[in-house]
Amino acid sequence: MNILHHIVEPSRLLMTWQPQDEAATSRTRRVIGEVCVEPDGQFVFRYLKGTPDFEEASKAGFKGFPAFRLEDSEIRQGVIESLLRRLPPRKREDFADFLAQHRLPAPFNYSDVTLLGYTGARLPSDGFALMPDFHEDTVPCDYLMEVAGLRHVLGTDVTGIHVGDAVTFEIDRENPVDQDALLAICQGKKIGYVNRALKASLHRWLQLHHVSATVEKLNGKPERPLVYVNISVN
């Protein structure tokens, strides 16, 4: 197990949403909101209304995050408290085990915003997740990424993928929906995509820095396998 060493404190998180209905026409994960930390330390949540991702999410059935009214232009009360309810409390006895699942160090001497972003704050009951919005100067940086679209690209047979396998990234120039989509390649085979919320940062890292990536863990269920990749930027 490789613990992440270079953890970046973000000033902004992106909230994504994915339809939970397996029969949905499109299950693409979309960026629908942001959590910003203002200079005075206040947390603000905003829906990214008017963006292509928000519009497509609305067409797919998105009705808003349960704790934040869709009608409000921004939310300033109880933002971080609402989001932290999606995580086990730091004082819980098994919190170190939770950190280990996400390859985070214990004790975790970073902010709640960083904890939310690096764990994703996902619940099995809904399609929401959070991730850091990495700035240009956030190098060195480590991040554990779940491969998106695994079943769509590879199916459910992940027997050819092993922990420690090198992963590379390349633009999917034949993608009819997203012309700058980034494919994840392992053992010369396409295994899925980079999360839309991470795509811009990874494009920039690939152009300006040295990026190495390896398969860190495989889990999930036989009918719904999950592959996680450890990305290191220097």
Unreliably modeled segments: none
* Rg calc: 17 Å
Round the mean pLDDT to the nearest integer and report it: 93
Largest sheet: 4 strands, antiparallel
Portion of residues in helices? 10-25%
What is the domain tally?
2
Question: Gap between N and C termini, in Å?
Answer: 20 Å
Q: Helices and strands, in N-to-C order?
A: EEEHHHHEEHEEEHEE
Number of helices: 6
Q: Given the C-alpha coordinates, what overall shape results?
A: globular
Write the layout of secondary structure elements.
Layout: E1 12-17, E2 30-37, E3 43-47, H1 52-59, H2 79-84, H3 95-101, H4 112-119, E4 128-132, E5 141-146, H5 150-153, E6 167-171, E7 182-186, E8 189-193, H6 196-208, E9 211-221, E10 224-233
Antiparallel strand pairs: 1-2, 1-4, 2-3, 5-10, 6-7, 7-8, 9-10
